[in-house]
User: Fold these one by one.
Assistant:
Number 1:
Amino acid sequence: MSSPVYIQIHNQLRKNIEDGKWKVGEKIPAERELANDFSVSRMTLRQAIQALVDEGILERRVGSGTFVANRKVQEKMSGVTSFTELMDAMGKKAASKTISYHLTIPSQTEVEKLKLGPDEQVLRMERVRYGNEVPICYEIATVPASLVQQFSKEEITTSFYRTLEEKANLYPGHAIQHISATKATEKIASYLQIKRGDALLRMTQLSYLQDGRPFEYVHTQYVGSRFEFVFEK
Amino acid sequence: MSSPVYIQIHNQLRKNIEDGKWKVGEKIPAERELANDFSVSRMTLRQAIQALVDEGILERRVGSGTFVANRKVQEKMSGVTSFTELMDAMGKKAASKTISYHLTIPSQTEVEKLKLGPDEQVLRMERVRYGNEVPICYEIATVPASLVQQFSKEEITTSFYRTLEEKANLYPGHAIQHISATKATEKIASYLQIKRGDALLRMTQLSYLQDGRPFEYVHTQYVGSRFEFVFEK
DNA sequence: TCAGTAAATTGGTCTAGGCTGTTAGAATGA
DNA sequence: TCATTCTAACAGCCTAGACCAATTTACTGA
């Protein structure tokens, strides 16, 4: 890996937490100890810890130690959350049906958002997602073809983010969401089993890798009566 | 002062920007130079800079310098933001028209959300808000009557949050927002100068004081085609 | 004059420590 | 047994450098 050491350590520490090596509420090893384990200076390790604290994953207590914070549901919203996790949190069974999946030429919007080069192709996926068998949203996800050529359809559709991390060592950083409201077209209405003209919650999300490269543009339309976003400020 | 040096420097730097010593887009002195000016190590100064970068006030460019950023809209969304500030950020002139304003008996929802006692009354305000003379949203705000009895209508409608802080020493803490989509009723449509059935972005916000007491419940319906939320995750 | 190259400047990362204040727990005394 | 005091461990904060990579600036030769 070529990324800075403190980013690598940051990812490793997060992995330890995700893998359950360190559980919620537990104290993680002392800074000096971890610095020694990773063979870096304490300042470097502190940078990694600081990042996790900023993300709300860790919590420092002076004189006591650094602990794994217990994330609230709404805090999950602050991370880049998948539909599956979202449905899980609501106690619903997530499912999805792929409408289309193919390499193609990007739209003007996609070129701009994903900062694509000329002649660069994209992988575009159309999906309808369900919670407890009921259609919740219609989604179009676009990623640069260059990023996913090495992966199988299986690897991309089931858990794209995990595949990126594990197979390509690429880590999602921040994302920008725009949320507005619109009405269902005839086509969307049929996919979502609603009436034409029904209210939809429209979200576009542009996700960036840790190095700042945009890597995924998703346009989602949620059934207004079946879905809501919850944010804590 | 007893606060950490990097916090003191952070405040001083922010002051320089607010006072117009460093203008938007301008380069601020180099890290090494500032570190020398403040007589601290570069690492300490970088902590102060980092905080300002996190707040979106400064912007770093490797090999070039650190610049005063022009704040984007979505950055403002991270705080508890007023409609007026929001419109300001978009370069629009904010205005509002009060539809109704009276003490009344709360609805069941309001009792639950605001944790009202039996027979406790509320102040309910209906408003239409405008940006550049165009209707943007229709809003119903409810606060417990007990909280606002000491204030004039003027104090409440112009700047409720400021009044709370200055006159009652009450500080807003966190808030929870629910965002969904719905269609305009005949009544709402006429207020917002749209057609019945047009898509609306529906937000409810329950705001809490720093001590955890809920103090304001706001139900807002934004014209789908004239407004969007932007979140950065 | 202009293009190409070298040097200086800048932020990014990292080291190997030091000192301070807080905290939990052990030792001590009533 | 209970309360107090002491101590070791901890995170917070800070220093004074180092080297790297990106960018800008200055210089040099055609």
Note: The interface with chain A takes residues 43, 54, 74, 78-80, 174-183, 197-202, 222, 224-225, 227-233 of chain B (CB under 8 Å).
Number 2:
Amino acid sequence: MKFMDISEVSKQTGIASSAIRHYEEKGLITSVGRRGLKRLFGPEVLDQLALITLGKTGGFSLEEIKAMFGPDGRPALSRPGLHQRADDLDRQIHTLEALRDMIRHVADCPAPSHMECPKFQQLIRISGRRKRDERAARHAKPARSFPARRRPSPS
Amino acid sequence: MKFMDISEVSKQTGIASSAIRHYEEKGLITSVGRRGLKRLFGPEVLDQLALITLGKTGGFSLEEIKAMFGPDGRPALSRPGLHQRADDLDRQIHTLEALRDMIRHVADCPAPSHMECPKFQQLIRISGRRKRDERAARHAKPARSFPARRRPSPS
DNA sequence: TATTGACCTCAAGTCGACTTGAATTTGTAG
DNA sequence: CTACAAATTCAAGTCGACTTGAGGTCAATA
């Protein structure tokens, strides 16, 4: 049993069949052939789907993910382009760390309103600073749109 | 000049006026009053908007953000609920670190297809492991939907 | 051989977060 | 006082990523 049908892939990955078809349509994955009408997938599709899921967690669109690691294994993005993405992620990671700290603070701080707490104010300032640095550093960037990220509904 | 009109807020934050109105409609912020028809905002709205932006970066929906730190300053979420959110963020951060490492690897690895590179394979395995742990740890979680996150278009 | 159930295609619908456009209402500069 | 730029409301539209539904196909089992 080297090849899997779509339901098997779905079971292994937790991704809905309709989504898997969608990814194929968009060129992020490829099926190795058909048995009758039914798609057959090789085992490599599992890694590819893991990669897609990962990319979506990072907030990348399917297009962007395809450009970074499409099914052909050849990134359509230049080396600097990829490093750029990695740098974006680094910044995003720092932002999330700040957010996490703020949430924990809100959970633990006894102040009646967190907005009145000096520590919280300070956390906001920090994240604000970071944001301004970004703007300054990137200086008139071309306005990439940054689409949806969802957690897969376990339907 | 203690109060700002919507365009001033928009300028300070980089958030479109229409979005600011949208946030008010959804109850994430409040204007302090009107001059004629025009909304007037106090300075605190800037921090609130920073918080909203931050939350969106974390992939939280407006509803979720409102529950964590609404304009009233009182989280509608229980303490464990908030820690839960923070834990989610921690996991997400680790995932993003893995993704960042993979992207950097793709950028630098000379292998013809990254899928053939053992190091890359290994990175996927790691992220896969992480994911499985999550599933195991949380055991039939109630399927939160996880809406859009966008980078603000500099319109 | 006849059913059956999994899979197929294609069009249309959904969801969140906004944006856009049309018609209307100002505060303020000239 | 009038004109105008800037806000306002409300309805409708957009975008990405899927999901859903109707109607059709086919390999394998009874």
Note: The first strand of chain A starts at residue 33 and ends at 35.
